[in-house]
Amino acid sequence: MKTLRVPEATVTRLSIYSRYLERLDRNGVSSVSSGEIADGVGVSPAQVRKDLAYFGEFGTRGVGYNVKDLMRYTLKILGLDRHWNLILVGAGNLGYALCTYRGFNMRGFSIVGVFDNDLTKIGKRINDLEVLPMESMPEIVKDHNVRIGIIATPTRAAQEVADYMIKCGMQAILNFAPLPLNLPEHVEVRNVDLSVKLEILTFNLGFKSAQNV
Amino acid sequence: MKTLRVPEATVTRLSIYSRYLERLDRNGVSSVSSGEIADGVGVSPAQVRKDLAYFGEFGTRGVGYNVKDLMRYTLKILGLDRHWNLILVGAGNLGYALCTYRGFNMRGFSIVGVFDNDLTKIGKRINDLEVLPMESMPEIVKDHNVRIGIIATPTRAAQEVADYMIKCGMQAILNFAPLPLNLPEHVEVRNVDLSVKLEILTFNLGFKSAQNV
DNA sequence: TAGCTAATGTTATTTACTTCACATAATATA
DNA sequence: TATATTATGTGAAGTAAATAACATTAGCTA
């Protein structure tokens, strides 16, 4: 098996292919071509094949791909052939929304601990979880073998929370605070910035208007 | 002024520089170099200068950039030198979180209409807004001159909602449903997929584990 | 005012990513 | 069984983006 560096764009698309394949499978589709996948998710057929080629050969020439098989392969590649327990810090509205977000469960993620340092929030329930004080993090992490943490705090708290998460053993962090975190190399971080995409839209709208003038 | 095509990655970074500059400005910093911006947001100094070069010359050789000026320029480039009214469909937990999200207001965005087709949700209040039925959309859009819509519905409703938004005149859509939308060319769409980034993390954790074995 | 230092703006280089094009292989058909 | 058709997998070509390198210019110092 090849060990080329895999572009992050490829991993992103793989995640999208994977979900598209789940949908096909639910709809009873058993076979699919790179062209159909491409149409379904809005990329080129060559792109689909190239992306898959980083990880092996999954199709049959002249035929296409078996939906169930390819779905399982993509899930496995993404590390989703297993269950992942997560912790989340920040029991505000965003934290609440993330805890109740179905999309995570559907992909094998479970939030097993919600933390906050606000005394008015500690003890409240979200689904079947109680919001806990930060000091409880090490215990939860140990009990549930947690490696990934989600930050849904106000911006000002994010860096401190990230540092504490790492002290508690987190190996990866998903950060919703609009602030670049400063973390050691061995920790994987990805940011979800809710307003950046919105600003790409305003940029493009502005650009269009300018061209019409 | 050059009219090269601007890479989307550049626009994304511009949004991040812009917020970083706002922070510097709030902290009373008046001058900054490309190297300092680079350190602050985690890119290379050359990248910062290259990104800015798409839009003009904003610095002084040997000196650096005036923070307030560059902040204003970046905001203007992104189309954020004005106010943007938004509508949102889907008054669930995610919709609620987005309506109350400070990050939008801080960048000049206001959600002026929240819609749902669920009768149990219509009439409820979010901040100072009442959740309205879908039929009210055209009126709100007209009254507030809205061009951008946010989709925070369950996946199954997203495509239909997007179509209706466009009928109501939306020119751009920010889609939180994990589904590629099928829309006419002239409509700008960006997806915020909450679990894709999480799956990049699990991919990377899996990859690391594999390499250690 | 001449020389030094610092940091921009920009060209050249390198690297990364995407698309193209086609050889290969599987199935269907006559 | 030969032929036509379809769609994969992949090397080559093309495009785009990031990095490096440097010429330029502002400000400082003696």
Q: How would you portray this structure in words?
A:
- The structure is a homodimer of 213-residue chains.
- Helix content of chain A is 46%, strand content 17%.
- Chain A has helices spanning 8-26, 34-41, 45-53, 67-77, 93-99, 102-106, 137-144, 155-167, 196-212; strands at residues 31-32, 65-66, 84-89, 109-116, 125-126, 129-133, 148-151, 172-175, 188-191.
- In chain A, strand 5 (125-126) and strand 6 (129-133) form a beta hairpin.
- The longest helix of chain A is centred in the first third of the chain and has 19 residues, at 8-26.
- Chain A starts with 7 loop residues before the first helix and ends with a helix.
- The model of chain A has no long low-confidence stretch (mean pLDDT 95).
- At the A-B interface, helix 1, helix 5, helix 6, strand 8 and strand 9 of A face helix 1, helix 5, helix 6, strand 8 and strand 9 of B.
- Chain B binds a DNA duplex (30 and 30 nucleotides) through helix 3.
Short note summarizing the structure:
Two copies of one chain form a homodimer. Chain A has helices at residues 8-26, 34-41, 45-53, 67-77, 93-99, 102-106, 137-144, 155-167, 196-212, and strands spanning 31-32, 65-66, 84-89, 109-116, 125-126, 129-133, 148-151, 172-175, 188-191.
